[in-house]
Amino acid sequence: MARFTTLYSGSSGNSALVEENGRYLLVDMGKSCRMTQNALKGLGLPLADLGGILVTHEHSDHVSGLAIFLKYHPVPVYGSAYLDEGLTYFYDWYKDADCAALWEARHRLQDFKQPILWVNDANDGAFSANSTTLSFLNSAQGTLCLKYELAHYHKFDIEEVYAFAEQVLHGGAPLPVFEQTACAELGREFALKTNLQDAAQAHAELYYITQPMSYCRTELGTKMEQEYLHAQQGAVLENGVVKVRVPQEACAYFIELWQGELMTSSPLVEFK
Prior knowledge:
The chain is of the alpha+beta class. Helix content is about 20%, strand content about 30%.
């Protein structure tokens, strides 16, 4: 039986591990390489039995010890794809070929056939929405959840995650999803079919920016320079179909699809 152990947790750094049959997988490494090594030694876990590191997200309190650790222990790293095309500080990391080879997952996405839920804040300071969109578009069975406002969490209490797990593992009710994919080729007025037969408590919302997405440096990392605007009547749900009108001034947009307290979204669509 698998064993889950927390190495350390809090705003200063987070790490845990999953162990089974003499092998283990680390989840995040938010403190120093030395502290993580000492924590593993205290549990009697040799580094030779480490099968890899799963990165839940790349905020500093989850990855600050990772770069040094990988110099001494080059194990596989599992995380998001297309960070080399993102606009945040992670782009700089990909200038190092060894880092890119360890981290980049795009070439392995198609090998993973299980359903994946991609969740991100649309203006997150660590992940830019374009890289999350590319991860979704290139997944064999991807579902995307870009949210206009998604707080940074140190606990896994995002309702869509629980609903998605219930759907995949136990045949629970599906999340509301688009059955067609929004893209720039559709122009600014079009319609998208959804899986919603009952429109009770269901609605759609369109958010957009008027300048190309860009990020600026801050003391804490990077920050998106644009503010999303809400397009009133930009996305209207009728009889299971969302009628879309993208404002002419929009450089990029995405659409949220809600049913009750749960939502998914379209990709981030950018007009070049």
